[in-house]
Amino acid sequence: MMNLxxxxxxxLMILLMACYTYFNFRFFSFxxxxxxxxxxxxxxxxxxxxHLLAYLIIYLKTxxxxxxxxxxxxxxxxxxYIYLYRxxxxxxxxxxxxxxxxxxxxxxxxxxxxxxxxxxxxxILIAASAVITWLVPWIIDHVWQLSRAAWLYxxxxxGLLGVVCLTGTTTFGAQLSLExxxxxxxxxxxxxxxxxxxxxxxxxxxxxFKTVAVTTTVAAAHVLILVLSKDLGSALLxxxxxxxxxxxxxxxxLYLGAGMGSGALAALVAYRWFPHVQxxxxxxxxxxxxxxxxxYQIAQSLFAIGTGGWFGMGLYQGMPYxxxxxxxxxxxxxxxxxxxxxxxxxxxxxxxxxxxxFMMVAxxxxxxxxxxxxxxxxxxxxxxxxxxxxxxxxxxxxxGVTLPFVSYGGSSIFSTFLLFNxxxxxxxxxxxxxxxxxxx
Length: 440
What we know:
Number of strands: 3
Structural class: mainly alpha
């Protein structure tokens, strides 16, 4: 009987996820605000039904009352986050709030299945991050001096990365985090935001050759410190974001070509100089030749994805715990194994939907500073999604970056809340300006 319930539930969860994803893109076809709100309401219904179904299965499999309490706490949080956001920010992007909640919902479901204790810790971090970043849209809308602090952003970013390079904790061959009074965090997650603000502020001032040269030098310093720390995933993230921001700011194809060329050269140098990069490339190119050691993680990831197929094994029917660090950069493999390829594809489409909205916000903003921030953060976000999923599916070598809002990790969660709330602030700013123009 239990197997029948699990088998039926996985198809219902796929259907609900597919409906949510359909609504995500259907939203863009409407101009009428009331129709858009109706679509968002349907998204909420699909998300809460999927959430309920998943935790019902988890409770039936574990029999732990704590699972029900944890589920109730999540429901209260999601309802409060969705409706309080609308209450305090009248012109909020409901679609972006919904997508953030759905991605967090999927992440919490999989983390609960993998480790209830880690899921609870993640939920506490989510709630704390939501509260701490609550005023970010207000700051974006009301503080106009943000474009004047270009060098402050640079000093903060370089300072944090420098401290990590000198005293950071080494994880999987790279210096990634700092530990203060027992609390560990990854500064590069936050520096990617100050980095975008720095580049946007500099290009807002001028796009003359001198300014471009100075900005490129400082950007290169960020990337170089990350390379010295062997945090090559973040280095690639920063590099891609800067190259495209430079191109958008200047519309100069020569800069884009030079950037791509230097990136290819830097990748070759990194492969020659860093043994752990050679190990990852070797594991990516042929994991089966060293399946017991270097190729074990990617091999288990591919086994999980292949075993799950299109419809998945069902919650608690797979073996995601066999994948090392599955709760972080390989959580997409766990989703694919137990919830299925269709469900996992919907997660990717939701991420793409977020990126499209970032680009739409960037396209509607008039001030080049805000436009570049929205564009830069959008590139950071979609590049991170690409690196994570590309590494899990063996499309590219694994880079060790997390899937925003889904993977386990406090630094990742907090920085993603910052990123989404900055975009929300820009969206609210634009909507407020449009309303003022209509009144006048």
